[in-house]
């Protein structure tokens, strides 16, 4: 079937007009309205499971318990014959391995069981599963101009996000469905000129604690589309 040149031009102009008619902050609000329609994130207190599948490795099951008001985070991980946990309460972090809290330095080093890693996991899971609401945190710099970009054959409204130097150095792009404003892709670069970093394809939704979270996240390198792994979310 042939498509006339005037029709193509009209569609392109329409896409551009749509992206220019909404600001970055407005797009973020619409995305939050989709994922957190009842404003549950600030009082979120729930648990969920994440199964990580990576090439040439066994599955890793993580149970995450997150209580935003209490500043509480618990991560319980099972992989092969070992299980370990990080328990973060405010500024303190406790670790365990196979149910034991008295660990040797060799055990801690082998499994990287330390406070710093516990806080890193807390920030990692809170950020990724708190998106797009976490984009309202202090130090987040929202580009006011919304771009229209095609990715993997679909047109998206794209939000560019940078961070204050005290918060982070990476540049992120968030891709939202232009009709529903659901978040379907995100992408980050350490140095965009080098095409480094990764992109993550999101599919399906799982409602956890009133939040519509992406059920499946598939990770790829930006530079060569090499597949890294998949995270699958399920209720606990």
Rg of Cα set: 20 Å
Q: Give me the count of strands.
A: 13
H/E series: HHEEEEEHHEEEEEEEE
- Shape, per Cα inertia axes: globular
Please describe what this structure looks like:
This protein has 236 residues and is α+β, with helices and mostly antiparallel strands. 21% of the residues lie in helices and 43% in strands. The protein has four helices and 13 strands. The chain has helices at residues 5-20, 24-35, 105-111, 115-129; strands at 45-53, 60-67, 72-79, 82-89, 92-97, 140-142, 147-151, 154-163, 171-176, 183-189, 198-208, 211-221, 227-235. Strands 1, 2, 3, 4, 5, 6, 7, 8, 9, 10, 11, 12 and 13 form a 13-stranded antiparallel sheet that branches. The N and C termini lie far apart (49 Å). 19% of the residues are buried. Mean pLDDT is 92; it is low at 7-17.
Features:
236 residues, alpha+beta, 13-stranded antiparallel sheet, 21% helix
In short:
This protein is of the alpha+beta class. It has helices at residues 5-20, 24-35, 105-111, 115-129, and strands at 45-53, 60-67, 72-79, 82-89, 92-97, 140-142, 147-151, 154-163, 171-176, 183-189, 198-208, 211-221, 227-235.
Element layout with pairings:
Layout: H1 5-20, H2 24-35, E1 45-53, E2 60-67, E3 72-79, E4 82-89, E5 92-97, H3 105-111, H4 115-129, E6 140-142, E7 147-151, E8 154-163, E9 171-176, E10 183-189, E11 198-208, E12 211-221, E13 227-235
Antiparallel strand pairs: 1-2, 1-13, 2-3, 3-4, 4-5, 6-8, 7-8, 8-9, 9-10, 10-11, 11-12, 12-13
